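The pair is set out directly below:
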Amino acid sequence: MPKANAKPLLGAFAILLGGILWVLLRSVFSAQLADAAQRDLWVITELVAVDLKRGAERSGSLRGVEVLRQDAGAHRELVETLRRAGDQKLRTVYFFDRIGRVLSVGTGPTVVATEAAQASQIVREAARSLADPAREPTGVVFEPYLDREEDEVVGVWQWNAAMELGIVAERPYDRFIRPLRWFDGVFIALLFLAALAYGLYMQFDFKALRLAFRKPDLETCGPYQILRLIGEGAMANVYLARHQHLGRVVALKRLKLQSGKDETLERFDREARLASQLHHPNIITVLDHGPVPGGGFYYAMEYIQGLTLTQWVEEHGPVPPGRVIRLLEQICAAVGAMHVKHLLHRDIKPDNVIAYAAHGDYDLVKLLDFGLIRDLDHEASRDLTRGLRVLGTPAFMAPERLLDPKVIDPRTDLYGIGCIGYFLLTGRRPFEATLDADLAQQVLHVPAPRAAPNSIFSVPTRLDDLIDRALAKDMALRPESAAAFAAELEGIAKAAPWHREPARLWWMSVQAEVSEGNAAAKRVENSPKG
């Protein structure tokens, strides 16, 4: 699956995993607490049982409550045992008889019996168990119940057959459950911190922040002061820069020092010269171009604060059909303007289209990155791919270019527009594979999937058909030109209209996120150079 929607999916998976982990750990911890509490209470009942056994041996034929009433020695020993064991903060110990009466042992030679109807839940359960000879004469109740003081407790019981008395040891439920509540509190605190961290992860462009805090590898380039690194590629870096005299902020693209091969220099110089000929509202404007001391070139272009279409889908998910049509119409206009000048872009993909809002208008786009631009009228603009190397991104590359890197036909760019349309509607690339070789085989031989069945939106049939034709292996089946592509989109727009107000609200939230994400970068930008 591509990176689209990766952040929400990661968050959902993390929440699910955290919930499962919490349930498992809580279950284990709860079981350990119950075991520890039971061991403590069983020890107490055994101590009391020992005293009862000694009393039974001395009392002869006396049994049950009569031992406690008539044998002063047994009574004193039992009172002392209860005094040692019966700390009210930790536990309570008392007796019951076979019919369920609770027996309270006083400090003097008195025993008070409570009616069975007034007995607690544990005593009633014990009485029921004793009525069934097949059941064990012991029991545990660790679901909280009310004791004689109307407080919640948990407890254990056992029956002493020698004395005809039952022994109950109880512990306050609050005392028992307190460590578990601490555990829950720690988990909730961690969950809150994780949610806060995930919220920051969703809000901020950490890649931009990392670039912002990286010290630029140069401070000036021509007449420009380098402010910060905003993009990095295999052959060139893109910086936010300011003209030292005019004060204009630009995006400055500069070849990396290790990329100074003749072929790379020639391609970069050609990119700048040809791109500077393009003047269209949907094409990034090249403002300046020049050599760099020590070798290489740079060119400066207008700086647009927005989102590439890749970022849009990755961070916000697939795009509704009405907005997709508006975006594609502008891309067609940009590509059409290039084709009129007999220039091919040859690298139409979501990374190379930036969307933005400006001057009260929304869902605007500009086409950028002309590294593979081709001039159809001049031999000097030959394809600089010696050895038939294929330059471009296979996932968005027309099949004819994979078969023959030298192919020149405007409809190769239309294939890229179709790929963008599919990507925006579905959040997925038309073809996906781990290896480029497998990806190329799919592009060449596997029919492109339809957008409508793979989209979360209701895609108009005509839009689905148009994108399917744009992705055809046979160029003859694609729209004949960018203008024709745009005309069909215009006709489809009635079935999926674009609405300004939802777009405005969406861009307000996005621009707030971008502003927050760039706050640290601006502080770096305005700080003195060290």
In short: Residues 306-498 form a domain with the Transferase(Phosphotransferase); domain 1 fold (CATH 1.10.510.10).
